[in-house]
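Lecture notes, unit on protein representations.

Consider one protein chain, 355 amino acids long.
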Amino acid sequence: MSRAAIPWSEAIWAHAQASGPLAVTDAEIALGVAIASRPVFICGVHRSGTTLMRNLLDSHPALAVLPSEGTFATSFEPKMRELGRDQRLSFVACEWLRRLANPTNQAPYWLLGRTTGSHSPYVAFGRALMAWWNALESRFGRDAPSWPLAAVALAYAQVHSGISAGLRMWVEKTPTNERLLERLWREFPEGKVIHVVRDPTAVFASNKASSSSWRERARLADRVLRDLDVSFRTAQEQRRAGTSARYQLVRFEDLLENTEATLGRLATFLDIEALPVLMCPSIAGLEAVSNSSYAADGPPGRIEYSVSGRPRSLTRLECARVAMACGEAAADLGYNIDRVAPWRRTFLRFTFGSR
């Protein structure tokens, strides 16, 4: 699939370049710059519920929600540094064209619709990206290195539903971006953050289930424990700092058990109307598959409510490692994580290091 996707994206981009940037009016540029200034960043440890959070916001008319993970600081930015200035746009365009055709290796595909004999929405996306790239680089280039992601969001919105006065913010989801909060707020002072947390033992168990070998599980365990440590300490710090105007903590369990109330609180936080569409997870307006990796064959467009319980697949040692990594901060956020006895803490530090 990837071998076919690369030449396809390059061919689409070549057609877009031949056609030139999409024409945007001065009024559209002014509105687009205002929207670009108001991002919403969804973050949290992998498998903590960030995808469901994004999918629930997807179809709200006030939000331009990117249908694939942004991963700008973790993926795009390091590669862009290696490229010349003229090559960066082509790199971002081709990568996002592939994401719009196949964002998660599972349905739905072709998120901008199918190409016809007279129109390709993917060529239109490339042309829109050229237009917004030029508009935002001059406005944000010096102060906000993440501006290319905002250009992608505006290009996607332009082709998917149009840039209109009802559109207020753009939304992207990147797990572990909670470690970059100060940078994100420095670049986008009006930006808001939705930080999703979940019972750390459930997060650990879900990641464990995704590994196929003991070597892979061992490497993944160390990474997940480090991520949990940072994520829960960040949530604890932000909660104590009282940054409620730009930071909202969402417990995954609350999202499932009190969905309507939690989404109502989020709508207030984002200053958007609490529409019924918030209860229907989607990707680019298309019904999303189950939010549970354990119920992947469930009906699309619905929330899977049976995934919030404590896992039984962890050993006592694994539970102790989770408790050692983030137990105190997790307890402060309402999670009942078993304390680690002093002798066991010494054993874990000697065997596994600080985590």
